[in-house]
């Protein structure tokens, strides 16, 4: 350890000796305290269970990693000191070499993200020299960590019986439909314990309620009250219930087995709706680690467990998997567990009562035999796990997508010129395969005649489809070989249509109050809007309907983002950037349409480059009157004064805003010299599913 700097060591699972003896195992290095005391070898079992690793060896690797990280930090400091003011010559060289970096790999190099993460290709939107001159501080503001204002909310007491019943019913009919990691009957029994039918509502200090029951009650109230509170149907702020739950956390929070994982998942679910100063990614990694320690990933269940207990264990594990896959891919971080380490099947598509009856019959020795019998019988009836299983199948496709493109990006870096010509065919084959997987997934969605919540609506399934298709195509565009850094037109076409679809579907659901705001949805809208702007800017000829839909999608996206920005005050930087880009892109489209060769130089080259790109719909391409489009678009904002940038300027005086009349050159830029875009890409992921200022409120439970 250099310079004696303190560092946090990763929490290791219990060693083999302590686990066998049921002795508390600490996190000491190079051996745990019990093994040191007894003079035994301290061995840890690998995830697969087939190999043991000495903790001393792990410690040596940690020391090596720490040493290398220190070397990297010292080297970075030296580079920053010597190159604090980049020379004009360096910028010119980079700009001149931009077109030459074309067909070899066409991928950009991000200091924050691995190649193929899915956002790099839209960087030219941010890089225009004129745009930067008009907005000298906008991206710098965006690259800073968002500060979350402390909310003046006090812990809530238990609500009245009627209010609590409404919130519990909301939880079971909404959140539980997508995330059934608690048994419905357990939730109902908890309510009956806290609110006995023969008594008035019990004070939360009543000795009749355990601290754990109070914790779960307040967490269910926190999650279940979110849609009610945001739609004006509940008077108490959900965060107040969360604070009350935190006041009832016990020191044995992490030592309750399966219940501990459920308790952490409740925190993670609430964190998706509300800022809790804790990284959801970190929470779910802790959940997955506990799943591995309990053998849930291998289907190891304790003796005497009923079929319903086994079903619940599967639901808990796959819930952790589902959140882990989405959060890790959003943040472009390693998944908590590899797919090939998982050997437990999905939960059975059946109601709890049906599984309980099957277990009581004694006919089925295990859950798999019941699942096989049920599959042979066949049924189109929806069950308690139908939506959950649909989401799991989608996450498996997401994981497959991420893995394939991760492997491609690694092989492309070392490929030869001949290999690069074959890379397009490989990428297109993968895209085609995964698009077919997604289409088949959509066709398998359950049908609800009278949907009772968002998760039963066909429009929500369409939104998920568009989001995953967009993620897939963005990854492909990131690494596909290009000509003069322009991605292939057919991929741009798919990207444009998916981005438009995602924005319009979400905006419709949001306007109807069928869907509520989250940072994840905010990220989806932001990146979808930028994708639309880029795709329309990159192609000179579109059919009129496509351009109209693109302009409408950009407008709807900005409207929704600004509405969310009123509630998510820490999102104001992203709203300002989106608004500036919207004004800039519409002005640029109009300018290039009216006078395509007036800007000369690089824009002329870009225009000529676009000439080879085929139309979105061959045979139907027409040139659109961009002046009428721009006029109609701006008029829609004039009719809604609360959408004006002046409102943001009044609340955020330190932000720089874009002048809609500013003209620049989209492609004339130093693409690689500014790290603000990379910071934004990483920061937007952190904003959605992680927190750079990760709270250490769990430390005392992990170390105890």
| Strand elements, count | 2
- The helix fraction, in percent, is 55-70%
Shape: globular
The whole-angstrom Rg is 27 Å
Instruction: List the strand order in the largest sheet.
Output: 1-2
Structural class: mainly alpha
**Through-space gap between termini:** 24 Å
Low-confidence stretches: 83-116, 596-678, 692-704
Number of helices: 29
Q: What is the makeup of the main sheet?
A: 2 strands, antiparallel
The share of residues in extended strands comes to under 5%
Give a topology summary.
Layout: H1 16-21, H2 33-38, E1 43-45, E2 52-54, H3 55-82, H4 88-96, H5 124-127, H6 129-134, H7 138-143, H8 161-173, H9 175-178, H10 184-194, H11 211-230, H12 238-246, H13 258-273, H14 280-293, H15 307-330, H16 352-361, H17 367-377, H18 386-413, H19 417-443, H20 458-479, H21 489-511, H22 519-538, H23 544-567, H24 572-594, H25 601-610, H26 626-638, H27 645-651, H28 676-689, H29 699-703
Antiparallel strand pairs: 1-2
Helix pairs in contact: 8-10, 8-11, 10-11, 11-12, 11-13, 13-14, 13-15, 14-15, 15-18, 18-19, 18-20, 19-20, 20-21, 21-22, 21-23, 22-23, 22-24, 22-28, 23-24
What's this model, at a glance?
By secondary structure, the chain is an all-alpha fold. The protein is built from 29 helices and two strands. The chain has helices at residues 16-21, 33-38, 55-82, 88-96, 124-127, 129-134, 138-143, 161-173, 175-178, 184-194, 211-230, 238-246, 258-273, 280-293, 307-330, 352-361, 367-377, 386-413, 417-443, 458-479, 489-511, 519-538, 544-567, 572-594, 601-610, 626-638, 645-651, 676-689, 699-703; strands at 43-45, 52-54.
């Amino acid at each position: 350890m250099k310079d004696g700097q303190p560092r946090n060591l990763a929490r290791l699972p219990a060693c083999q000796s302590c686990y066998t003896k049921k002795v508390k195992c600490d996190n000491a290095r190079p051996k745990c305290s019990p093994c040191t005391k007894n003079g035994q070898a301290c061995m840890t079992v690998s995830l697969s269970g087939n190999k043991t690793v000495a903790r001393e060896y792990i410690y040596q690797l940690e020391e090596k990693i720490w040493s290398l990280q220190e070397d990297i930090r010292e080297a970075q400091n030296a580079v920053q000191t010597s190159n604090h003011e980049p020379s004009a010559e360096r910028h010119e060289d980079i700009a001149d070499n931009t077109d030459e970096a074309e067909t070899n790999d066409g991928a950009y190099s991000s200091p924050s993200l691995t190649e193929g993460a899915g956002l790099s290709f839209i960087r030219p939107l941010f890089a225009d020299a004129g745009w930067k001159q008009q907005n000298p501080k906008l991206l710098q503001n965006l690259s800073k960590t968002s500060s979350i204002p402390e909310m003046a909310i006090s812990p809530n007491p238990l609500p009245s019986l009627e209010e609590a019943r409404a919130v519990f019913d909301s939880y079971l009919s909404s959140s539980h439909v997508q995330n059934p990691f608690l048994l419905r009957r357990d939730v109902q029994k908890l309510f009956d314990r806290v609110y006995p039918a023969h008594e008035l509502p019990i004070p939360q200090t009543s000795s009749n309620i355990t601290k754990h029951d109070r914790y779960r009650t307040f967490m269910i109230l926190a999650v279940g009250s979110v849609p009610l509170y945001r739609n004006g149907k509940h008077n108490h702020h959900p965060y107040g219930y969360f604070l009350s739950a935190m006041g009832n956390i016990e020191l044995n929070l992490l030592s309750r087995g399966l219940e501990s994982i459920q308790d952490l998942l409740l925190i993670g679910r609430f964190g998706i709706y509300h800022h809790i100063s804790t990284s959801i990614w970190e929470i779910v990694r802790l959940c997955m680690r506990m799943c591995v320690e309990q053998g849930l990933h291998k289907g190891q269940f304790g003796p005497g467990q009923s079929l319903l207990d086994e079903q619940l264990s599967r639901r808990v594990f796959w819930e952790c998997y589902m959140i882990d896959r989405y959060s890790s891919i959003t943040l472009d971080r390693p998944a908590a567990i590899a797919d090939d380490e998982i050997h437990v099947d999905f939960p059975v598509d059946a109601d709890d009562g049906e599984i309980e009856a099957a277990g009581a019959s004694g006919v089925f020795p295990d859950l798999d035999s019941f699942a096989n019998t049920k599959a042979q019988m066949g049924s189109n009836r929806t069950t308690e796990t139908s939506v959950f299983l649909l989401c799991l199948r989608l996450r498996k496709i997401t994981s497959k997508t991420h893995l394939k493109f991760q492997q491609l990006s690694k092989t492309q870096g070392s490929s030869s010129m001949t290999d690069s010509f074959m890379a397009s065919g490989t990428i297109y084959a993968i895209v085609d395969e995964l698009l077919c997987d997604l289409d088949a997934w959509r066709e398998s969605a359950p049908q609800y005649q009278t949907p009772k919540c968002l998760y039963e609506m066909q429009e929500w399934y369409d939104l998920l489809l568009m989001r995953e298709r967009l993620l897939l195509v963005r990854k492909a565009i990131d690494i596909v070989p290009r000509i003069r850094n322009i991605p292939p037109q057919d991929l741009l076409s798919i990207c444009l249509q998916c981005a438009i679809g995602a924005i319009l579907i979400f905006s419709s659901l949001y306007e109807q109050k069928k869907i509520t705001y989250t940072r994840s949805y905010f990220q989806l809208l932001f990146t979808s809007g930028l994708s639309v702007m880029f795709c329309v800017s990159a192609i000179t000829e579109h059919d009129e309907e496509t351009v109209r839909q693109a302009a409408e999608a950009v407008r709807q996206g900005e409207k929704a983002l600004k509405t969310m920005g009123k509630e998510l005050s820490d999102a104001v930087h992203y709203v300002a950037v989106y608004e500036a880009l919207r004004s800039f892109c519409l002005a640029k489209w109009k300018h290039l349409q009216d006078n395509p060769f007036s800007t000369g130089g690089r824009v002329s080259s870009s225009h000529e480059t676009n000439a080879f790109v085929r139309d979105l719909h061959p045979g139907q391409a027409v040139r659109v009157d961009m002046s009428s489009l721009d006029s109609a678009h701006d008029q829609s904002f004039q009719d809604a004064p609360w959408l004006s940038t002046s409102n943001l300027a009044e609340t955020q005086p330190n932000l720089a805003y874009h002048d809609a009349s500013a003209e620049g050159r989209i492609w004339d830029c130093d693409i690689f010299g500014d790290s603000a875009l990379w910071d934004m890409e990483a920061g937007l992921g952190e904003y959605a599913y992680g927190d750079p200022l990760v709270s250490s409120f769990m430390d005392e439970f992990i170390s105890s």
